[in-house]
Amino acid sequence: MLKSPFHRYNLFRNPFGELSREERAELAVVELSRWQPHFQDDQSVLQFLGHCGHGKTTHLLAIQRVLPNAEYIYLPEDGPLPAISNRRPVIIDEAQRLSFWKLRRVLKAGGPLIVGTHVDLSKAIRQAGLNVVTFNVAADSSSEQLQEILNRRIAASRLGNGTVPRISAENAVRLRMAFGSDVRAIEHSLYEQFQQYARELRPWPPADSQ
Amino acid sequence: MATCRLTVEIDEPSRPRIAGEPITGFVVVQSDKDARCKGLVVTCYWSTHGRGNTARGDVETATLFDGEWQQGKEYRYPFKLATATWPPTYYGNMINVSHYVQAQAQMPWAKDTKTLQEFSLIATDSPPDLAPTSNVLVTRSGIGWIFAPILLLILLLFIPFVLFLLPIFGIIAASYWIIRVLIPSQITGKVEFKTEPAALSQGQTLTGSCEFTPKRASTINGITWTVKCNEKCVSGSGSNRSTHTHEVLTKVQPLAEAGVLEAGKLQKFEFSYVIPTTVPPSLKFTDNEISWSSEFRIDIPKWPDWIKEIPFVVKPASKADLSKHESGALSAATTDATPEDDQWLTEVYQQVVQSAKNPDRLKNVIEAVQTQVFAISVDIQGEVEEPLESDIDEDGIWVSAMDSVRNVRLVAFVPQSLVWEGMLWTNGWQGNANVIGFEDDTGRIILKLC
User: Fold this and answer.
1) Tens digit of pLDDT for each residue in B404-447?
2) Minimal CA–CA distance to B405: which of B355, B359, B354, B337?
């Protein structure tokens, strides 16, 4: 099949597919200015807390974009953990996977340190004599923010001049009611829906979700 | 705020490029104010997109300009870039491959402005690393038996942890072998199953054979040979990593009905399958894959089935095949429609749609027109399933199509003799067709190309 099913929507791809790391950071809906003071503070740890799919990694990637000298370290679930140097600032994703001793060593080197974690590490951070600012990614989300996240994705998939589909405020509210603040689950659901509508040559978004 | 507007204009934008064929066109720049451009860079690249992690390959990059742009002026910069030889353009469900020309204006102290234009690419061969290792059922490997104890020794010496895990892995492997190989072979005896060739092009025939002599008499529910094509992709990384699969094609060929296998009597089956010209070739990227395989299954009641799957590679049609199909396409596209014919076709479409809710009336309308030949011009949009309403019993494929002039959605049967590689490439395909029905659940008119 050589004819793009997406062009009829003035898009060059399904907007809810997987993005590259760079593009994910570029499209992040993150208010970075509020974190700016912590990026220079060598006594500060910025902690992004939340479950899978709620936006921790997106926050970290967006911060890395404005801190090009900061190293981004992802701690895998299996296999050996990568070495964490004493260079600062450093961004550590999935920081709950640090062992007690490794976490102590990382905190001993001080800040600025930015971590994404499923488990609250504030107690250990304070015990190390550092200040901690915790940001619960799920608690801070809203349907307006969700609408912007989804519409940015659509805009980034624009093919040419002219209009592209949009997620309405009502649709964003409905999606939030169905999936909560799990943005990944929302994107997966919209991916399947968009794919089906494109295959069937139907207008998207469906009339009943606008 | 962007200071300039970029547009990429590709020459003959709807014509697919054949692997490596240069692509030409213009980058058009309109500047809102006097501006300095550090570099107007144009890149030809391919990218995967969809459910899996993306892959990208840059083919050629050129800097077309650097200097000053004046407010209100339009500038046109010609470009000529090489295209990739691989992968071909593909739009699937989980995996897509697109080729683009991207223009990017690098502006000092401002965000770069960029735009892209997509084009289709047809590959004429596959990279060698897609080739499967074997197309014959492998029962055992002598080399493996030599290296296995050495590997085991190393593991035992260096990883004491293995001592704990090894029995668990051993039990799992042994259980699998007992259920999948040992128990079924108590009935089937030694089964020799092979397919050839290991790699073939779209339009070519995959053949296979299987023979076995049952050790003892047994009833079977049937024997089948299935050709499968699947999309498989991986999204995320680490603990967020998940695998998604989608079935692109599954063709089951029954080889034997339910019955009794006699002990000691040789069972021999030969089978073949023509790879359609419209299916995707095998593709392989780090996190995205389209794989082909064929599976032979002896369905034994109340007993583990004998199953073996052999992968094979589907390559794109060769350059020689493409030119043959292209010349065929030209001769098939000749039509002579008068304005009266056009009007009559519009009326027939309207009659069919208006009769959709009245089966008797629809039947009358179809009977009245189904032998008439209409000259049509449609956009063909890909292969689809056969509509339930169809009773065509011929070799061929079903495609989804659109009559853009009349804004009518169609589903059309294309007899095998009319199927050629180029038929899904272009908008405005022209040819002849009969109107033969209406697909109720999708609201599409059913045509048969002729």
Assistant:
1) 778 788 999 988 777 765 566 556 777 888 999 998 888 899 99
2) B337
